[in-house]
Structures are given as structure tokens and as C-alpha cells.
Amino acid sequence: MTNDKPRILIVDDEESLVETLSVLLGHEGFDVLSAVSGAEAIEKLENDLDVVLTDIRMPKVSGIDVLAQARAKKPDVPVVLMTAQASLQSAIQAVNQGAFYYVQKPFTNDELLAILRKAADFGRVRAENRTLKREIRKRDRRAQVRPIGKCRSFVEALEVAQTVAPTESTVLIQGESGTGKEVLARYIHELSDRSENSFLSINCGALPESLLESELFGHVKGSFTGAVKDKEGLFVAANGGTLFLDEVGEMVPATQVRLLHVLQQHEVIPVGATEPVQVNVRIVAATNADLDEKIRQGSFRSDLFYRLNVIAIHLPPLRERRDDIPLLAENFLERFAGVRGAKPKRLDDSALQVLLEYEWPGNVRELENALERAVAMTTGDVIAREVLPKRVTEPEPVPLVSEAMPANPPLEVIERAYIEWVLRSEGGNKTRAAEVLGIDPSTLYRKLARFESEA
Questions:
Q1: What span, in angstroms and rounded, lies between the C-alpha atoms of 232 and 218?
Q2: Rg (alpha carbons) of the chain, rounded to whole number
Q3: Where are the coiled-coil regions (predicted)?
Q4: Domain 7-129 shares a fold with domain 146-316
Q5: What digits encode the pLDDT tens for the residues 287-346?
Q6: What is the pTM of this model?
Q7: Residues near 43 by beta carbon (within 8 Å), at least 6 away in sequence
């Protein structure tokens, strides 16, 4: 109930009856609101209510109309109908349409009170059940999207996400491709007060500039060739929810300006339009690029970076969280089995050892891909080493630097060699190596990824 007293809305076009019932129900412990027309009653449905008591026969807006509006606006609030003999059939039909009950005029005070108290109790239980079911669904969704891992650096990232999720702060997730940035973004959304609304995502590096702007901000009919009708952009579609901008570092400067305007003014201007549209969207952005370097190069705006980088979360690569590989593998195998309605397959010791030793340049996404292939290639219950992809079982070593050093090596080669030496000195621990080098771990990860791609 809305408070200690059940709140009831009394509706009848006979003012004297409304006054009489208001006094009666007020004395009997109800918090009373009243309306002397169906139109007035519909307006008062915006209040917190526990019961609606309405006459059926009223001019212009009938009690059946009030019932329909109450069912649409307040589905948990029971509606009791008052009816004379002439409209008894209408009352019976209304009960079939969702009214809680009807009481036939003339009625006794005790008869009316018994029905209204039962209605108030019924509405309270129904509202509590609906809230409980919503919380169960929310809990189940959170469990389904919760990132998996026990590695210290990963757990620290998860703790930051859990701390900031209930806030409205913009989050920037950094990490290599395939580390689970979108999974973490969805987890943040599910832990937030926006979880009942939309979570939408877009890869900013996968679309050309003109199409990306149209997808993000929308467009009006005739704004460009092919714009045959108005289009709602993702900012509007995600209103009240969360928008995940993946690979935000790939945005061209013009689109960055438009995004900055949205973050500052909380409004979008569709392509070809002149009037802004107010939006209420939380932004979670992600990148595997070195935004600091892009800022120095002039390809990424520093003011946008500071708007996005309110809360920074770094996801470590899978090779830095090898203890999580068995957990992730088990989760993937259970999920694949669930899709097929079968018993989960398991890895034999040699297959698991291969997974633990591989470097996983594609991170969690590559592990998922490798296990999905292995499941498809395995007829029994146990996955053997031989069915894993060859790139995993027989990886080619990729040195960071060439064995043959030129007489006067360029600065980049010296940098590579020094980073490799520090890594070896620290036993391959990149977090400690970054401290020795005096750089942020995310910068070290990106440098190593670039070295490998250029090798």
C-alpha cells in the first residue's frame, strides 16, 4: 500500500453520494480522493492509489472508460464498480475485462467495506508479487551477464564497475579487443537504476562517418540521398537507458564534436534538423586505442576524452589472467551445452594445459571461438587436445624484436628491446613492468599489441 492507510479514489457523478462515501470510508481508515466525473477520475489516476471505486453510468466518460484507463496506467490497482440493476450486465462484463468486483446499488455499508478491504489487500499482494518477480528477473539477468574471473586485476576492475554502476557517471573501458568490454558495459547497465530500460550498443569503427552519425543522432527525411523518412537515432532509442559506444577512438573529428555536444547539453540534433531533442542517456564508451597518443596526434579531442574518461576501467588481457581460463572454459562449455540441450563436455588434462600455455592474442573472444569449434568437433563427452585449433596447439613464436640488430637502431627498436628486457626481468608481469617503465599499464598493453601486429 502507498502508506499506512489504503488510498481510495471514489468516482460518481452524484456529489451527495461521493460526500457520503468519503465520510464513511474516511472513518473506516481509508485515505480518500474523490472525483465527480469520469474525466476528473482519469486525471486523478496519476496519484498513488490502492483502490478505485467508480459508478458505471456517468455522462461522457463512463466507469468502463475509467476502468480501461486504470488498467492501462495502474495495472496493480483493483477497480470496484458500483452499478444499478439496469447496468448489472455491464458490470458483469467489466469484471470479465479486469474489474476486481462490482457492488449493486443500493448496498449496505458493511457489504461495501468488506469488498473494498478485500480489494485493497488483493492489490497490495499483487503489487508485491510483481515487484518480487521484477527483482528475480533483474537478479537472473545480472547473474547471466556478470563477467567471470578471480584474477586480482580483473576483480579490481569488476569492483570499480560495481561501485560506479548506480551513479550516472560516464565510464570509459579500456582493453585489447576481445577482453569483454561490452560484457562489462552490460553488467554496469544491469547494476544501475536504468536496468529496466534499453541497453544499446554500436561499434563506432565499423561504420563510415555519414552512416555512423545517422545511426547515433538520427536524421530527417530528405537530409541526404536515401533518407526517405525520418529515422530515430540510438541516443533517442536508448533514452532512459544506456548507450555503449565501442571503439570510440575511431570516431572522426566531426562526429566527436557532435558527441561532445550531447554529453554537455543532453540533447541531440538529428542530421538535417534544426531543433534539438532532449535525451537522458548514460554513456559507457570503450576503446583498444591509445587515446593519449591520438590526442597528441590531433586525431582525438582532449575535451571529449575528459568527458568520457570520468571513470576509467582497464580490462587486462587473458594472458595476464591465466587462472581464469578454467573458469571461463567451464562457463562456455556449459553455455554451449545449454543451447544444444545436452550434457556439458569437459576438457581433458592435455587440452586444458594447452589453453593455459597459449598467449591468446584474441583474448576471451578467441577462447570462446576455440572452445565452440572443439565442441563441434568432439563426438564424445571429453574434449582432447587434438580437436583444438592448430593455432592454439602449435603457436608460432612471435619475437618482439628481431635477433639481428642494425648498427644504428632507430629509437622504436631500442624501445622495443628495453621493454622486452624489463618484462623478462619482471618474470613477464606486465603490471610490475609498467611500474618500472614509469608508464600506465594500459599504455604498455597497447605498445605490446602494436609491436606484435608489426612483427
A1: 5
A2: 31
A3: none
A4: yes
A5: 998 899 999 999 999 999 999 999 999 999 999 999 999 999 999 999 899 877 789 999
A6: 0.65
A7: 35
User: What average pLDDT does this structure show over 159-172?
Assistant: 96
Q: Which amino acid is at 77?
A: V
Could you tell me which residues are beta bridge partners of residue 282? Answer: 242
Shortest CA distance to 194 belongs to which of 308, 284, 327? 284
Strand partners, 231: 219
Rounded-to-integer distance, Cα 52 and Cα 455, Å: 74
147: number of Cβ within 10 Å: 19
pLDDT in the model for residue 1 = 44
Q: Across-strand partners of 268?
A: 277
Burial of 96 (0-12, 13-18, 19+ CB in 10 A): exposed
C-alpha cell of residue 305: 576524452
Which grid coordinates belong to 57? 453510468
Q: Which amino acid is at 321?
A: R
Q: Give me the phi and psi of 79, to 5 degrees please.
A: -115, 125
Reply yes or no on whether the pLDDT at 96 is more than 80.
Answer: no
Return d(Cα 250, Cα 255) in angstroms, integer. 10
Q: Residue 455: what pLDDT?
A: 57
Residues with Cβ within 8 Å of residue 427, at least 6 apart in sequence: none
Q: For residues 219 and 232, what is the distance between their CA atoms, to the nearest angstrom?
A: 7
Instruction: Give the number of C-alpha atoms closer than 13 A to the C-alpha of residue 288, restricted to the C-beta side.
Output: 19
**What is the rounded average pLDDT for all residues in the chain?**
87
Q: For helices 109-145 and 15-27, give the axis angle rounded to 10 degrees.
A: 70
- Confidence tier at 405 by pLDDT (50, 70, 90): low
Amino acid at 96: N
SS3 content of the chain, % helix, strand, coil (to 5): 50, 15, 35
DSSP conformation class of 318: G
> Nearest to residue 68, comparing CAs of 52, 84, 82?
52
Domain ranges of the chain: 7-129, 146-316, 319-393, 411-454
- CATH fold group of domain 319-393: Helicase, Ruva Protein; domain 3 (1.10.8)
Q: Which of 1.20.1090.10, 3.40.1180.10, 3.40.50.1460, 3.40.50.2300 is the CATH number of 7-129?
A: 3.40.50.2300
From CA 230, how far away is CA 220, in angstroms rounded?
4
> What one-letter code names the amino acid at 392?
V
* CATH number for the domain running over 411-454: 1.10.10
Q: What's the pLDDT score for residue 80?
A: 94
Fold of 146-316: Rossmann fold (3.40.50)
